């Protein structure tokens, strides 16, 4: 019997999906965490492993199945499943296969959890989010991507290390694509209320000049490649980031997060594309975007990022 209270379901019991489940349990995000994967033996083993640690986390239960019915009555559904790369298969072909997987897997889940908020995590997340919206017909507030929440966390960490301050005191966002064309919004960034572009080094800190900012941006863009080269996948930080998104939804926090959602109206010449901008996230899902100030260079970069994503959408016939 399921426990009463909040429920999140995670589609895909791989490294990312199980890291999200683990983070959600530790943070006490939900009373029920459901895992769904086509590999029934794998998902049941993951459920058993997670369940053995329930003594040490806020009260919860973990369930799992290969049947979409396990997601019924979810408050949040997190989609991490992706097509497995075959030998000789290009990244473009892999993305096309993932879109087809979404086309097959997502509608039955929406059928059993029509009121849930859907957070897409599978990469390329912006294009997958756009495709999922087209496939399901769900509105932008109800279905959106994890976007650059993780990228922004990477940016804040690197700035904090460079300037010698706690990462919690750094407020800065990555916008645009979750990928190579993403851009840091330096002009609106701050440390403890001090505009980042006016930052003066403290004891142990360093000057955050244009060269330092360029280096930090490059490190953010290259972060996933470095991690994948070393250990094969990124999972812990995206697990924490996605659990935080789910927490903002189930607790109706009105938290500002740079999630990826459909731009329906004209936004500085950008429309009909999913990309990340600082957005209010609460029980309704992805709410209004903040009217954040951007420099001319940042706005031009955001448009280039949008063009990159639109080219990808066109390749997939979206």
TrEMBL record:
It catalyses: (S)-lactate + NAD(+) = pyruvate + NADH + H(+). Residues 7-145 form the Lactate/malate dehydrogenase N-terminal domain. The keyword Ribosomal protein does not apply. SUPFAM superfamilies: LDH C-terminal domain-like, NAD(P)-binding Rossmann-fold domains. Coiled coil: none annotated. The gene is ldh. It is found in: Cytoplasm. One of its GO terms (molecular function) is L-lactate dehydrogenase (NAD+) activity. Its main location: cytoplasm. Pathway: Fermentation; pyruvate fermentation to lactate; (S)-lactate from pyruvate: step 1/1. Keywords: Allosteric enzyme, Cytoplasm, NAD, Oxidoreductase, Phosphoprotein. Residues 148-311 form the Lactate/malate dehydrogenase C-terminal domain. One of its GO terms (cellular component) is cytoplasm. Homotetramer. Allosterically activated by fructose 1,6-bisphosphate (FBP). The modification Phosphotyrosine is found at residue 225. This is L-lactate dehydrogenase. Gene3D superfamilies: Lactate dehydrogenase/glycoside hydrolase, family 4, C-terminal, NAD(P)-binding Rossmann-like Domain. It is an enzyme of class 1 (oxidoreductase). Catalyzes the conversion of lactate to pyruvate. GO terms for biological process: glycolytic process; lactate metabolic process. The active site is at residue 178. The keyword Protease does not apply. InterPro entries: L-lactate/malate_DH, L-lactate_DH, L-lactate_DH_AS, Lactate/malate_DH_C, Lactate/malate_DH_N, Lactate_DH/Glyco_Ohase_4_C, NAD(P)-bd_dom_sf. Beta-D-fructose 1,6-bisphosphate binds at residues 156, 171. It comes from Gordonia hirsuta DSM 44140 = NBRC 16056. Its EC number is 1.1.1.27.
């Amino acid at each position: 019997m399921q426990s009463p209270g909040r429920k999140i379901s995670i589609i895909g019991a791989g490294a990312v999906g199980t890291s999200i489940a683990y983070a959600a349990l530790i943070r006490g995000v939900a009373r029920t965490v459901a895992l769904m994967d086509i590999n029934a033996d794998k998902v049941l083993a993951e459920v058993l492993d997670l369940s053995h640690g329930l003594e040490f986390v806020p009260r919860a239960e973990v369930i799992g199945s290969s049947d979409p019915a396990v997601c019924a009555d979810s408050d949040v559904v997190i989609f991490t499943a992706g097509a497995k790369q075959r030998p000789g298969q290009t990244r473009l072909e892999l993305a096309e296969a993932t879109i087809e997987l979404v086309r097959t897997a997502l509608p039955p889940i929406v059928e059993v959890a029509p009121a849930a908020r859907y957070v897409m995590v599978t990469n390329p997340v912006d294009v997958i989010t756009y495709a999922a919206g087209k496939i399901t017909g769900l509105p932008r507030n109800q279905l959106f991507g994890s976007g650059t929440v993780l990228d922004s966390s990477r940016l804040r960490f690197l700035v904090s290390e460079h300037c010698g301050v706690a990462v919690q005191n750094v407020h800065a966002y990555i916008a645009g694509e979750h990928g190579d064309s993403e851009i840091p919004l330096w002009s609106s960034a701050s440390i403890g209320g001090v505009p980042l572009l006016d930052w003066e080094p403290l004891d142990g800190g360093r000057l955050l000049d244009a060269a330092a900012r360029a280096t930090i941006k490059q490190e953010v863009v290259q972060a996933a490649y470095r991690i994948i080269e070393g250990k094969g996948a990124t999972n812990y930080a995206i697990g924490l980031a996605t659990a935080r998104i789910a927490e903002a939804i189930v607790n109706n926090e009105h938290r500002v997060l740079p999630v990826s959602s459909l731009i329906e109206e004209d936004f500085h010449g950008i429309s009909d594309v999913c990309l990340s901008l600082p957005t209010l996230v609460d029980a309704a899902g992805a709410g209004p975007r903040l009217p954040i100030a951007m420099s001319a260079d940042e706005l031009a970069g955001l448009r280039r990022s949008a063009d990159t994503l639109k080219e990808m959408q066109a390749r997939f016939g979206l």
